[in-house]
Design brief:
about 260 residues; mainly alpha
Length: about 260
Amino acid sequence: MILKIIEHKLFSTIIITLILINAILVGLETYPYLHDQYGLWFHWADIILLWLFTIEIILRLIATKPTLTFFKDSWNVFDFIIVLSGHLFVGAHFITVLRILRVLRVLRAISVIPSLRKIVNALLLTIPALGNISLLLGLLFYIFAVLGTMLFAHIAPEYFGSLHSTLLTLFQVVTLESWASGVMRPLLVEAPWAWLYFVAFILVGTFVIFNLFVGVIVGNVEKVEKLEQEHEGKMAEPTQTEKDLAHIKQEMLELKKLMKELQKK
């Protein structure tokens, strides 16, 4: 009975709605005049939402057989910790922590909405590959930072005066945020060849490295979708026990037909 309730689409819709209401209330609470005027209402609304989420977790725990398998799913553990922490950090001394936890409850939308969960799972799969790409990007940044400091420190010390300031400048350049008008063109006045440095960095850093990031993420999203389709296909296929039961049922039906024919004779 409980399993049918939590697997119903209406149940998921209600939980998503509650998460959205929680997100709206957290946002409204950031306005001082609203918080001062309706602070008590925000407090009681948060308590009600917390207990509704607690009931949801309890229902899911009861429906899971055996109960400990509930914690084998990392998303279930995430939901459990978020809700449990809301009960643990209660008190005036933890008001900032409580506000942070209210915001974190919005992240529960990821575990509830399958499409978001699929994207996050794909991102988690990309971590090993992204580590190697990040290492390559780090080497690229370091090489261009050293070159930029050596070449332009005396021309634009505010951008290339030291290694760490050059790294910050390159981060601005690689995001393509005002790199031409804000960084490159002032340098061209004293160093007309400086465009070679920036064009080379953008071609390698932005158009090559970041496209590798995108390619890896897209590939893993497709991989997750394929794994889920295979899993759903296996779930749809009848097990050997189900096949045996169907075979026995068919034999019983044939036997009944035979008995009726014999009775007629």
